[in-house]
């Protein structure tokens, strides 16, 4: 729908105030019209309204707006809380007021927990309530963003702080696996800064830090990130560098610009700094890269003829079966486990799903991770975890088992994260594994907004010889539209319909969908032979984790694959 004219509202005398842009995403004309009328009568701040009937038509406006969204959860191209999730994936900083026909405390609570600023029920909100909700939503979101900024920025210099640098470093290090470029880090320590504080006090010390930050800001290149770590320590992240030679001119500029007198109120102080440089093209922990740069900085301090020094040794990739979490991830030390895949009719082993595991207390078994543990990983770490697990698994699978197929599951929202989507398929292709033996299962969280990106990714993965599947067939989150858009080669049934006592009609319907799209069908969650037989009868091709449950260690898996 074409954006409507701006609402008039009751404007204050100062009409030069910036107008609040309000996107009304509502497919029912009468409700959209009512919202516009209520805001015109009740909202006392300048505003303009743009109306849209579908999420797809609003996509660009949502990305670009710095205003507010009034959102109906039931749109023609998306429905329920997935609509809210899709909006947040497009623009995580825009405040959202849900305006829904659903009158339920549980739904309202879920919406607010997932980031909505308020939840209003159609027919139960007048103009005053809507106007108040809009005004409060804008202010609450502003406060949220300010608090988030304060959490990641240094109050003295305004630069990103240690937390902000760590987040940026984790993302940059994760990209090294896919891009082939290196990550550079310059660790900068001000010389004799304690003497400035001791002689002139902390106020002059803070002025010295601001002056140093401003001078460094004049030297950094476009795309570099300058941060204050602690005290008189700073760091510069240089992403996508070709090698050490690329950073030497930057280090030289920094040393020259930082060195010299500075007039700070009543004090004139002399500034200088020592700089350590580390570069890595490996997916190593953040602390390890910082430690290398820090060590190089101390080498520079010891050399009176040089203000900067390079790390003596570049880090090598860690063995895949050691700790593969990045930075300060809470997951800890992981290894690859296998949930066996069997031919449903003949019950012989045909492959396995590669899953993240911890070593059991007995030292001989492995335990699958709880969902709560995996939920603590961000999208980039989740993908790097997947890469590392695949490498670990294939490093120990002998060529004699090239007939086997292996799958790995990643959530849809992870696979469409805008920070990783460019080059993600190339990252899988660069794993250098046997063609057609790896499958990527797209996990939960499919939404209308994610389908175009997933369809493009699926096509690129297939171009690398990687099979693409959809998880949760027969459940609420795997719609038939997704199969049309993505074009998978296999699907895994929702485990709830594969358990004893589950509805046979749902199983048959799900198997029918798979047959209509010529998909290989995997059943997981089977609890007994009778249920397994029912699934075979409706056309299920593969059973996962039954009769031999997983996850298995590599030794257990090879024993099952190579009996005798």
Mean pLDDT: 81
Termini gap: 68 Å
Strands ordered across the widest β-sheet: 15-16-18-19-20-21-22-23
Can you tell me the residue ranges where pLDDT is under 50 for at least 5 consecutive residues?
Answer: 1-16, 314-330
How much is the radius of gyration in Å?
28 Å
User: How many individual β-strands?
Assistant: 23
| Global morphology | flat
| Helical amount | 25-40%
Number of helices: 19
Estimated share of beta-strand residues: 15-25%
Major pleated sheet: 8 strands, mixed, barrel
**How does the helix and strand content classify structurally?**
alpha/beta
Topology, pairings included?
Elements lengths: L19 E6 L3 H14 L4 E6 L2 H10 L3 E4 L2 E2 L2 E2 L1 H10 L5 E5 L4 H9 L4 E4 L5 H26 L9 H18 L2 E9 L2 H8 L1 H18 L5 E6 L2 E9 L6 H11 L1 E5 L2 E5 L1 E8 L5 H17 L5 E3 L24 E9 L5 E11 L6 E3 L2 H5 L3 H18 L8 E6 L1 H4 L8 H6 L8 E5 L8 H13 L3 E7 L6 H7 L3 E4 L10 H13 L3 E5 L4 H9 L4 E3 L9 H8 L3
Explain what you see.
There is one protein chain. The protein is α/β, with parallel strands linked by helices and about 575 residues long. The chain contains 19 helices and 23 strands. An eight-stranded mixed beta barrel has the order 15-16-18-19-20-21-22-23, surrounded by four helices. The protein has a five-stranded parallel sheet with strand order 2-1-3-6-7, sandwiched between helices. It has a five-stranded mixed sheet with strand order 9-10-8-13-14, sandwiched between helices. α17 (about 505-515) links the parallel β21 and β22. The longest helix is centred in the N-terminal third of the chain and has 26 residues, at about 125-150.
């Amino acid at each position: 729908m074409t954006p409507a004219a701006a609402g008039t509202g009751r404007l204050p005398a100062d009409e030069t105030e910036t107008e609040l842009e309000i996107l009304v995403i509502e497919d029912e004309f009468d409700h959209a019209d009512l919202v516009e009328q209520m805001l015109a009568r009740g909202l006392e701040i300048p505003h303009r309204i743009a109306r849209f009937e579908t999420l797809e038509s609003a996509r660009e406006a949502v990305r670009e707006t710095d205003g507010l969204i009034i959102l109906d959860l039931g749109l023609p191209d998306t429905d329920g809380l997935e609509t809210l999730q899709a909006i947040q994936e497009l623009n995580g900083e825009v405040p959202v007021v849900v305006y829904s026909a659903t009158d339920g405390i549980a739904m309202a609570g879920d919406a607010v927990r997932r980031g909505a600023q308020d939840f209003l029920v159609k027919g139960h909100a007048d103009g005053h309530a809507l106007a108040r909700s809009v005004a409060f939503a804008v202010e609450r979101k502003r406060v949220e963003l300010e608090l988030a900024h304060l959490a990641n920025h240094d109050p003295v210099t305004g630069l990103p702080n240690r937390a902000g640098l760590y987040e940026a470093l984790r993302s940059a290090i994760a990209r090294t696996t896919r891009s082939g470029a290196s990550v550079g880090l310059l660790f900068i320590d001000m010389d004799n800064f304690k003497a400035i504080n001791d002689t002139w006090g902390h106020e002059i010390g803070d002025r010295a830090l601001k002056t140093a930050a401003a001078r460094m800001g004049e030297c950094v290149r476009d795309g570099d990130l300058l941060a204050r770590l602690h005290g008189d320590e700073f760091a510069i992240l240089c992403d996508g560098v070709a090698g050490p030679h690329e950073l030497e001119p930057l280090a030289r500029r920094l040393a020259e610009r930082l060195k010299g007198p500075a007039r700070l109120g009543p004090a004139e102080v002399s500034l200088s700094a020592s700089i350590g440089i580390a570069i890595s093209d490996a997916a190593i922990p953040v602390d390890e890269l910082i430690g290398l740069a820090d060590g190089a900085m101390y080498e520079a301090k010891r050399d009176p003829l040089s203000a900067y020094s390079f790390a003596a040794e570049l880090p090598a990739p860690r063995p895949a079966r050691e700790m593969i979490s990045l930075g300060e991830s809470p997951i800890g030390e992981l290894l690859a486990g296998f949930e066996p895949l069997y031919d449903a009719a003949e019950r012989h082993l045909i492959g396995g799903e590669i899953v993240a595991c911890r070593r059991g207390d007995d030292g001989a078994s492995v335990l699958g991770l709880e969902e709560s543990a995996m939920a603590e990983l961000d999208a980039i770490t989740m993908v790097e975890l997947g890469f590392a697990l695949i490498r670990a698994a294939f490093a120990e699978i002998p060529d004699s088992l090239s007939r086997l197929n292996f799958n790995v599951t990643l959530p849809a929202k992870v696979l469409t994260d805008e920070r990783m989507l460019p080059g993600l398929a190339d990252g899988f292709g660069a794993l250098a594994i046997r063609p057609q033996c790896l499958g990527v299962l797209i996990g939960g969280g499919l939404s209308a907004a994610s389908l175009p990106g997933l369809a493009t990714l699926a096509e690129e993965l297939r171009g690398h010889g990687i099979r693409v599947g959809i998880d949760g067939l027969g459940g609420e989150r795997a719609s038939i539209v997704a199969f049309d858009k993505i074009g998978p080669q296999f699907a895994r049934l929702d485990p709830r319909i594969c358990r004893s006592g589950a509805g046979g009609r749902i199983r048959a319907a799900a198997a029918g969908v798979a047959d209509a799209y010529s998909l290989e069908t995997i059943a997981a969650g089977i609890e007994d032979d009778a249920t397994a037989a029912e699934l075979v009868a409706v056309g299920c091709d593969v059973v996962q984790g039954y009769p031999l449950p997983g996850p298995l260690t590599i030794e257990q898996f090879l024993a099952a694959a190579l009996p005798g």
